[in-house]
Amino acid sequence: MEKSLKNVLVVSFGFLLLFTAYGGLQNLQSSLHSEEGLGVVALGTLYGTVLLSSMLLPAVLIQRCGCKWTIAASMCGYVAFSLGNFYASWYTLIPTSVLLGLGAAPLWAAQCTYLTTMGNTHAEKAGKLGRDVVSQYFGIFFLIFQSSGVWGNLMSSLVFGQTPTQEAIPEERLTSCGASDCLVATAPTNSTQRPSQGLVYTLLGIYTGSGILAILLIAIFLEPIQDVQQKSQGEKKSPPFWSTLLSTFKLFRDKRLCLLTLLPLYSGLQQGFLSGEYTRSYTTCALGIQFVGYVMICFSATNSLCSALYGKISQYTGRIALYTLGAATQLSCLIALLLWRPHPGQLAVFFVFSSLWGMADAVWQTQNNALYGVLFDKNKEAAFANYRLWEALGFVIAFGYSTFLCVSVKLYILVGVLSVTMVAYGAVEYVESKSSIKPLSLAQTSQVEEEEIHTEM
Question: Which residue range(s) make up the domain with 34?
Answer without folding.
Answer: 2-164+189-228+247-456
